[in-house]
């Protein structure tokens, strides 16, 4: 918590249970280690650990902002299935005292990324898959991929 004597209190508490973030129903973050930051009268914000985010969809941008209570924020753009969400996520990599618990964690604009609580079940797919391996096995449009095709994981449909 920030200085209780100030007019601007920051409270950081663990989320109650597992949380996810998704874009177009694709899970980009899934964690049972989310921190909730409450700041003044603003809506609470969920901060996900970077290790629980599929960072392969993220690209750092030039945008930065300064908060006198948290420090300097750096931003990310998320690109997923042809949709580009500019500066939709941010992180504090060297937060000010009182906000050090969110160091290196990532938060999302709730009006652009769906952030929600879930039960204890894990994500329905491995959101930590190696994106580079997936890209190398994907046809780039030229009729071939960089790697041999993976074996099918389903049977041929029946007539």
What fraction, in percent, of the residue positions are helical? under 10%
Count of DSSP E strands?
10
Question: How many helices?
Answer: 1
Overall 3D form: elongated
Low-confidence stretches: 1-5, 126-131
Class from helix and strand fractions: mainly beta
| Main sheet makeup | 4 strands, antiparallel
Strand line-up in the sheet with most strands = 6-7-8-9
Radius of gyration over alpha carbons?
19 Å
Mean pLDDT: 83
How far apart are the termini? 63 Å
Strand proportion, as a percent range, falls in 35-45%
Secondary-structure element series: EEEEEEEEEEH
Quick take:
With 159 residues, the chain is mainly β. It has one helix spanning 131-136, and strands spanning 10-14, 19-23, 26-31, 35-39, 45-47, 58-67, 71-80, 83-92, 106-108, 114-117.
Structural commentary:
Residues 1-5 and 126-131 have low confidence and may be disordered. The chain is elongated and about 70 Å long. With 159 residues, the protein is mainly β. A four-stranded antiparallel beta sheet has the order 6-7-8-9, with no helix packed on it. Strands 1-4-5 form a three-stranded antiparallel beta sheet, with no helix packed on it. Strand 6 and strand 7 form a beta hairpin. The chain has one helix at residues 131-136, and strands at residues 10-14, 19-23, 26-31, 35-39, 45-47, 58-67, 71-80, 83-92, 106-108, 114-117. It is built from one helix and ten strands, in the order ββββββββββα. Helices cover 4% and strands 38% of the residues.
